Amino acid sequence: MLDIGSCSQAAFYKWRQRYAGMQASELKKLKELEEKNTRLKKMYAEVALDLKIAKEIIEKKLMEQDAPFALPKETNCRRSSQRKPVRYQQGVPCLKA
């Protein structure tokens, strides 16, 4: 039934389980969809990498702009733009500290 040199029995049974009952046109369409999915994943990875690089560049530029106004690293002072934590009592914000 199976040629010894072509593939192992386990590989044949796995292939048969996956593709059993499919027509040639269905197999062709499945292969095309898998190739398209691979291309889309590569495109997404490239766009995600571009976005990450752009964010790093923007953060670096913002840090360079803020550098003359930055507080020394050894102080624990907060900038006035940082928000203070809000405490909640039964789901309602409590403004008392």
Task: Describe, in plain words, how this protein is organized in 3D.
The structure is a single chain. This protein is mostly helical and 97 residues long. Helix content is 56%, strand content 6%. The protein contains two helices and two strands; from the N terminus they run H-H-E-E. It has helices spanning 9-19, 24-66, and strands at residues 87-89, 92-94. The chain has a two-stranded antiparallel sheet with strand order 1-2. Strand 1 (87-89) and strand 2 form a beta hairpin. The longest helix is centred in the middle third of the chain and has 43 residues, at 24-66. The chain is elongated, with a radius of gyration of 29 Å.
